[in-house]
Amino acid sequence: MSHKLYKNLIGGHSVASHTGKTFLNMNPANSDDIVGEFQSSAAKDIDDAVNAAEQAWKSWRLTPAPKRAEILYRTGELLTQRKEQYARDMTREMGKVLSETRGDVQEAIDTAYYMAGEGRRLFGQTTPSELKSKFAMSVRMPVGVVGMIAPWNFPMAIPSWKLFPALVCGNTCVIKPAEDTPLSTYNLVECLIEAGLPAGVVNVVTGFGPDAGAPIVSHPGVRAVSFTGSSEVGRIVGQTAAANFKPCSLEMGGKNAMIVLDDANLDLAVEGALWGAFGTTGQRCTATSRIIVHQKIAAEFTKKLVARADALKVGDGLDEHTQMGPQVNQQQIETSIRYTEIAQKEGAHLLTGGSVLEDGVYDKGHFFAPTVFGAVKPKMRIAQEEVFGPVVSLIEVDSFEESLEVANGIQYGLSTALYSRDVNKAFQAMRDLEAGITYINAPTIGAEVHLPFGGVKQTGNGHREGGTGALDFYTTWKSLYIDYSDKLQRAQIDTGE
Ligand code: UN1
């Protein structure tokens, strides 16, 4: 089957990269299926895109926020109409199962409606002046051109978390989708354009990180950068942005713990662990990758979890019966293999999985079996480092206090979960778990778009996506003073009499 050639979208035009090079976007479940061909862009393409965004900003920043918001409402409607098609496209390029890619599109729809509502809020503040007949207030102003680098695991939701608040706040954008999942960004932007977004307000440039991502971060015309991806790349992005004094939002890794206490509803906890660890084939920054279980119930919990992991139906995400899809590419498979070896060398017990699925229906894809390790100690690498695959570790503890200590004993701090029926422990966990997100009696995945999303410690640099936290990143405060006294009044010097 012939595939489609996609070009960069710059200033409302579809343009080929100056490099003359392209790359193929492959279906991770089926190497015969080419999803599309995309531009391998580099610095000159980014320069064109930033220039177009700067040009478009001149009028977009003056478009009233409620009008900008109307475009987001219409985008939400278009996404709703096309949800099924976009979900199928996403499963083809990313691999996760259809129910989850439908959820991914839904997350973009939720973000569209939520951020559209901000078009009639974007509240500022009025503040009393220390001087007489002087009025003081602060208002949110757009930042300018924002550069965005998106990951492949939420191919539509995460671009929407970045684009929609940026747009309602009056910014223009240059976005680079992940090279594994560019089609979903094209689908998203297609809706924005049909909804009435003017040319040049969003520019899409595809390519690889070092060639196309790096120049976005360093370009002097890009006033702020939003990045979601690995800690390794995030560190470079953060350092480059800092060297240019650029605000930069970094959302990176996790090693998310689920604590299961001896008073927990065990079946519920098993269900939650299964979804938290193997949903999206474990490829979420919020994935449950450490299960810290009380020794009194550890044996029973482990038996049930392993049985459920064994029974998971792994396969092509386009098949409605599949419960877990492939990993996104060969590199991710290699990471899963590497950590399986590391864990075994460290003395962890492989309870199930641990291998690449290669035969029969699996021979054309990147499939890894759902993997559970037992006898994991808190300081082992398998308990400390992010795998980003279907691999989960069980760590036994003797007390609630110890479980909190183990949960906090890592460099990351994104999501955490506690299964217990004890309300005091639930509140204590909410207070003491060092993470941006804590769930009680629910797994570590499944954040909703109208709450702040992000983490502490090495997970991020303090910014939040989702919720009103996003508005703080995509606007800058301007303080306004209006003196109607008709004389010179001096702050800190005159009395206001
Ligand atoms: C991510 O993995 O980068 O909370 C985002 C969740 C999803 C978003 C995950 N709503 O699991």
Question: Summed up, what is this model?
Answer:
GO terms for molecular function: aldehyde dehydrogenase (NAD+) activity. It is built from 15 helices and 21 strands.
Explain how this protein is built:
This protein has a seven-stranded mixed β-sheet, sandwiched between helices. It is of the alpha/beta class and 497 residues long. Strand 7, helix 5 and strand 8 form a beta-alpha-beta unit. It folds into two domains: 266 residues, Aldehyde Dehydrogenase, Chain A, domain 1 (3-Layer(aba) Sandwich); 185 residues, Aldehyde Dehydrogenase, Chain A, domain 2, CATH 3.40.309.10. The longest helix has 21 residues. The mean pLDDT is 97. It is built from 15 helices and 21 strands. The site of 2-aminohexanedioic acid (UN1) has 9 residues, from loops.
At the third CATH level, what is the topology name of the largest domain?
A: Aldehyde Dehydrogenase, Chain A, domain 1
- Please give the domain count: 2
CATH architecture of the largest domain: 3-Layer(aba) Sandwich
Query: What percentage of residues falls in helices of 4 or more residues?
Result: 25-40%
Which CATH class of the largest domain?
Alpha Beta
The coarse overall form would be globular
For this structure, what is the CATH homologous superfamily of the largest domain? Aldehyde Dehydrogenase, Chain A, domain 1
Counting copies of identical and different chains, the oligomeric state is single chain
The neighbouring-strand order within the major sheet is: 14-17-18-13-12-19-20
Main structural class? alpha/beta
What ligands are attached or bound here? Answer: 2-aminohexanedioic acid
